[in-house]
Amino acid sequence: MASNGIVDVRPKFEKIYSELKAQILADPAFDYTEDARQWVDKMLDYTVPGGKLNRGLSVIDSYRPLKAGEEISEDEVFLGCVLGWCIEWLQAYFLILDDIMDGSHTRRGQPCWFRLPKVGLIAVNDGILLRNHICRILKMHFRTKPYYVDLLDLFNEVEFQTASGQLLDLITTHEGATDLSKYKMPTYVRIVQYKTAYYSFYLPVACALLMAGENLDNHVDVKNILVQMGTYFQVQDDYLDCFGDPEVIGKIGTDIEDFKCSWLVVQALERANESQLQRLYANYGKTDPSCVAEVKAVYRDLGIQDVFFEYERTSYKELISSIEAQENESLQLVLKSFLGKIYKRQK
Questions:
Q1: Tell me: the pLDDT tens digits for 143-183?
Q2: What does the alpha-carbon distance between residue 74 and residue 232 come to, in Å, rounded to a whole number?
Q3: At CA 69, angle to CA 64 and CA 72, rounded to 5?
Q4: Same domain, yes or no, for 62 and 149?
Q5: Tell me, what DSSP letter sits at residue 106?
Q6: Per-residue pLDDT tens for 1-30?
Q7: What is the span of the domain harbouring residue 131?
Q8: Half-sphere exposure of 1 (CA within 13 A, CB side)
């Protein structure tokens, strides 16, 4: 397959999911009963392939420019897709458990896995299984590669960072529920970087770098740029949750009702006068639509939308400047492509 980036890899990527699922269901380390096989089959189809697949596709999208000008073999495309699916498996594992912790009802337009009548808290074990599938897939396909240990290290480290970010989010929200003043910008940034940016932005590119024979220790600046990009992405998410068009983003935002440590509320708390603070304290985290409207009114009075547009402008400028400081032009292409996909997005 040519490395010209024109070939759409999505159909091939989606097909490889079925191959990986079949391999998991035939793993000789576990003697499946028919019931267990059917359960895992259904659980995987319900939780793994249903998203936008952006993270998974980003591995092969990043690998192409790194092999600048070289032909990419079918085998390399396959392995890039396998690593992409490992990231999608990781995402599914996080989301299953997140939904239980948050008491969520829907995910990707359907009931959360644990909400299905026969599932309930069996979903906790399903999450653990998904995490273990990643190790099995990596062993099946990468055990003979010189970067196998680095891949295992990478997935272990990013999982640790994400789980630690989730802990920070849970305890901050728990404290914030009684004291909104706990929501401050350094706390917000730390939660976002660990909970979202590492696995969503750094992990796909790090996988591609390892496949290309690179040492990740030589690319700490690339990691920092991607984590900064992931932070910008989450701020966009927070903005769209409140001000985006539900028809476009595909969901109705509930950050205000859910007492989320959102970028918007942190900015509002920094800027509000005494009476605006009282209105925020009285209405934030309440499900009553009039309370939500009151919070949004405070946001509008404070010009939080304009604050976001200014943040978006300066973040983009800083990111472009950091990217252009990279000596490696292939890496510049990878990073600019990532940024291009998210800049001024509407969903």
A1: 999 999 999 999 999 999 999 999 999 999 888 777 898 89
A2: 34
A3: 50
A4: no
A5: E
A6: 333 444 688 999 999 999 999 999 999 999
A7: 1-144
A8: 17
Kindly state whether residues 116 and 215 are assigned to the same domain: no
Burial class (CB in 10 A: 0-12, 13-18, 19+), 302: buried
For residues 84 and 227, state if they share a domain. no
What pLDDT, on a 0 to 100 scale, did the predictor assign at position 6?
A: 43
Beta bridge partners of 6: none
Which of the residues in the chain have pLDDT under 50?
1-6
pLDDT at 1: 32
Distances (CA, A) of 254 to 2, 53, 127, 258, 287: 44, 23, 25, 6, 9
Domain CATH for 89: 1.10.600.10
Instruction: Single out the residue of 202, 194, 238, 232 nearest to residue 318, CA to CA.
Output: 232
Q: At what angle do helices 54-66 and 329-342 cross, to 10 degrees?
A: 150
Number of domains the chain is built from: 2
In sequence order, the 6+-apart residues with CB closer than 8 A to the CB of 38 are: none
Q: Do 326 and 221 form a contact (C-beta atoms < 8 A)? A: yes
Q: Which of 117, 144, 171 is the last residue of a domain?
A: 144
66, 209 Cβ separation under 8 angstroms: yes
Whole-model pTM above 0.90?
A: yes
The per-residue pLDDT for 3 is 37
Query: In this structure, are 163 and 266 located in the same domain?
Result: yes
In terms of domains, do 129 and 185 share one? no
Last residue of one domain, picked from the residues 144, 174, 209:
144
Q: Are 238 and 262 in contact (CB under 8 A)?
A: yes
Residues in the chain: 347
* Shared domain check, 17 and 7: yes
